[in-house]
Amino acid sequence: MSEKNRAPAFFARAILEITGMTCAACASRVERALKAQPGVHRCSVNLATGRAQVEYDPAEVAQEDLVTAVEQSGYRVSEPQEQVSLRIGGMTCAACARRVETALADVPGVRSATVNLATGRASVVYQPRLSGRRALGDAVRKTGYEVLPGGDTARDHADAALIGMRKAARRMWLGWILTVPIVAWMIPEMFFHTVVFGHHVMNIGMLVLSSPVMFIAGYPTLAGAYRAVRHGSANMDVLITLGTLAAYLTGIAVFFSPVENYAPVAAMIMSFHLTGRYLESRARGRASQAIRQLLALEAKTATLLMGDEEREVPLEEVETGDVMVVRPGAKVPTDGVIIRGQSSLDESMATGESMPVTKGPGDEVIGATINQQGLLHVRATRVGHETFLAQVIRMVEEAQGTKVPIQEFADRITAFFVPAVLLLALITFAGWLLLPVPFRAVAQAAAPILPWVNPNLGNFTLAIFATIAVLVIACPCALGLATPTALMVGAGLGAENGVLIRSGEAIQTLREVRVIAFDKTGTITRGRPEVTDVRSYLGSEEEMLARAAAVEAGSEHPLARAIVQHARSLQLEWSQASDFENLAGRGVRAVARGEEILVGSLRLMQEQGVDIQVASGDAEELERAARTVVAVSWGGQLAGVLGIADTLKDDSRDAIAQLHAMGLVTAMITGDNQRTAEAIAADVGIRRVLAEVLPGGKVDAVKDLQDEFGTVAMVGDGINDAPALTQANVGVAIGTGTDIAIEASDVTLVRGDLTGVVTAIRLSRNTFRKIRQNLFSAFIYNLVAIPMAVLGLLHPVIAEMAMAASSITVVTNANLLRRSRLR
Question: Which residues are catalytic?
Answer without folding.
Answer: 519
